[in-house]
Specification:
heterodimer, A: about 300 residues, Rossmann fold, 2 domains, 14 strands, about 35% helix, B: about 350 residues, mainly alpha, 4-stranded antiparallel beta sheet, 4 strands, about 5% strand, elongated
Chain lengths: ~300, ~350
């Protein structure tokens, strides 16, 4: 099953496209990192997945084939928007009570246990909690709904490093416990390395990279060698990005599944996630999209 | 497409979140505003109750005074009017702004605050969905506003009733029409609906309040000055005695040939009347003189018996307009991209 599936998805604000012709398949069971620079369309995509924004073109379905934003879909998706909006004038206990009354499924026990572990008192006003505690409360409330998919928009951006660490620990615990799928956006790539096992890179409103982190890392390597030989190499290999430093060049190369021999005079290294993302973001023309995307884009034409 | 589609999905649609739970949500989130309205209406209501009791007992003693035309009784009657009637008139004028205060105070923040603070992203992505969420909130608060306002206007009617009984004011009098019957509650409901739709359109609480107050006030003035008198075609009469409790809309004179005369013509006639008429101690002498010369005074008016017609016409279209605005608000919440 796919937690999010889009075909030809686009959103236009005035004359600018926040997202354009996005074909995307996110399979279930992953922690998906949605990365990209500010304005790449991350929030737009996530908002469309929970029905807060309606697409200008194309379609988006969630959890199989539920239309995004439908009651059936919302029943199984928990969303934490950027800056974790909660009612500041309510107490923590009232926030739990409120969320319970707004949903079909709710695990009060679990919410209370988590808050106790986090040292968040039930009688405190939400507005009096620290930023980190508010984010934790928003996550607690989302997880206590027992969703099948958890969508988080920039959950880490406003948190200090310690709160960021604690938040990710909580998130990983929830994933381990429930086996729920997670889609989270971030422009802080380093933090996601331990967390995410599926990567989507959005750039200028387009999906640039989509795939399992392990496969993407295995499918790419960096080559270091003579700058003069870059053009020659580019004819034989899929060079994503080339950076020249004097006579030396660093290349990010996609090896398309086949383990190709390292060309003579060049040295190969394993690539890191951050390095991979940055290389693609610097080269918006390059794309690494797995097969399923093309298949779904084709399939949607048949079903539509 | 993908092989794993059907088995993982529940076959049936989830049952919606029960309304009763959403009632709690509405109460919890709006109890402060509802409390504020209760304090405002309760405080003013208490004043009306105390003054109303005084007025009623004062009126009873005026009525029981005997003989009615004795100097003592006339003094008592004057004192009653001085003590209560003037203050009741002034106080009632202030009450005319009450519907807009109550309605806008509850209506404008309802959606504007969610949109302003970003909490709509929380509220609208919960399992109940935003459609049920907005319907229950609008419905409950609209009923609360209408019921509280209606109760308040009943209390005011009782408080002011003596002065209507005495014929000091007609029931169609502009300054009191809004305060009685179904009108007060209908104007309050309209203010609530205006506040709600302004909130979703403007997305900020204070500007939404300002805009809905301005819209409400403009409409209220337009209705009072221009619209209400056209609910039914006015009656026309030459009798000058039945005007007391009716709503007189216009007066004019016709000449012996039946043509309508200008004010200037009438003034000329009066200034050329004999000295005995112009300086007569009898206030009706001028009219009698004009009548004798086949000039007739006309008046168009709405009879007081049309009071409930007018109430129901105005209450009806205000209710319809409010429901349209509330439905539009629901539609906007349902379809508006956030």
């Amino acid at each position: 099953m796919n937690v999010i599936e889009t075909a030809g998805l686009g959103k236009r604000y005035g004359r600018t496209w926040a997202l354009k012709d996005a074909a995307l398949v996110i399979p279930a069971g992953y922690v998906v990192a949605l990365v990209g620079p500010n304005g790449a369309g991350k929030t737009t995509l996530l908002h469309m997945s929970v029905g807060l924004t309606t697409p200008t073109t194309g379609r988006i379905t969630v959890l199989g084939s539920e239309p995004a934003g439908s009651p059936a879909a919302l029943n199984q998706i928990a969303f934490v928007a950027q800056d974790a909006p909660l009612y500041k004038n309510l107490s923590v206990a009232d926030t739990l009570h409120l969320t319970r009354n707004l949903n079909r499924s709710w695990d009060q026990q679990r919410a209370e246990t988590r808050l106790r572990e986090l040292g968040i008192l039930l009688d405190r006003k939400v507005g009096k909690l620290s930023g980190g505690q508010q984010a934790q409360l928003a996550l607690t409330v989302a997880v206590a709904r027992r969703p099948r998919l958890l969508v988080l928009d920039e959950p880490l951006s406003s948190l200090d490093p310690l709160a960021r660490h604690d938040f990710m620990a909580s998130l990983m615990a929830a994933v381990a416990e429930d086996g729920l799928s997670v889609v989270l956006s971030s422009h802080v790539i380093a933090d996601l390395e331990r967390l995410a096992d599926y990567l989507i890179v959005l750039s200028r409103g387009q999906v640039q990279v989509a795939g399992e982190v392990e496969g993407l890392l295995a499918g790419h390597s960096t080559l270091t060698g003579p700058a003069a030989a870059v053009d020659d190499l580019a004819e034989r290999l899929a060079v994503v990005y080339a950076r020249r430093a004097g006579t030396v060049a660093h290349l990010l190369v996609r090896n398309n599944g086949a383990a190709e021999p390292v060309p003579s005079g060049w040295e190969a290294h394993r690539v890191g996630l951050e390095e991979l993302v940055l290389a693609y973001l610097r080269e918006p023309g390059a794309a690494a999209l797995p097969g399923p995307v093309a298949r779904v884009a084709h399939g949607s034409g048949v079903t539509a | 497409m993908t092989a794993v589609a059907a088995p993982a999905r529940p076959a049936t649609r989830p049952r919606p979140v029960p309304w009763t739970r959403l009632v709690w949500v509405t109460w919890r989130q709006h109890r402060v505003a509802l409390g504020g309205v209760a304090v405002l209406l309760g405080g003013l209501g208490l004043y009306l109750l105390i003054m109303g009791l005084k007025i009623h007992s004062g009126y009873a003693s005026v009525m029981s005074c005997h003989p009615a035309h004795s100097a003592a009784c006339l003094t008592l009657s004057d004192m009653f009017n001085r003590d209560y009637y003037t203050s009741a008139q002034v106080f009632s004028v202030f009450l005319l702004v009450l519907p807009v205060l109550v309605g806008v105070f509850l209506g404008a923040p309802l959606l504007a605050r969610e949109l302003e603070t970003g909490t709509f992203r929380f509220a609208w992505t919960q399992g109940c969905g935003r459609l049920r969420w907005v319907i229950i909130k609008l419905a409950l608060l609209a009923v609360a506003v209408t019921a509280a306002s209606y109760a308040f206007s009943l209390l005011w009617s009782w408080y002011f009733q003596v002065f209507f009984t005495e014929g000091l004011d007609g029931p169609l009098a502009q300054q009191y029409f809004d305060l009685r019957g179904v009108d007060f509650a209908a104007w309050a409901l309209l203010a609530f609906a205006l506040g709600a739709i302004a909130g979703v359109l403007i997305r900020r609480t204070v500007p939404a309040m300002a805009a809905s107050i301005a819209a409400w006030t403009g409409l209220d003035f337009a209705v009072n000055l221009f619209l209400r008198k056209h609910y039914q075609a006015p009656l026309v009469t030459t009798s000058s005695t039945i005007w007391q409790n009716n709503w007189v809309m216009g007066q004019w004179y016709t000449g012996p040939n039946g043509a309508v005369l200008s004010q200037q013509t009438i003034r000329n006639l009066v200034t050329h009347a004999p000295e005995s008429v112009q300086h007569s101690p009898n206030p009706n002498a001028v009219t009698a003189y004009l009548t004798a010369h086949h000039y007739r005074q006309w008046a168009s008016y709405q009879p007081e018996s049309r009071y409930w017609h007018f109430q129901l016409i105005e209450g009806g279209w205000l209710l319809a307009l409010s429901l349209v605005l509330l439905a539009a608000t629901v539609w906007l919440v349902r379809h508006k991209a956030a």
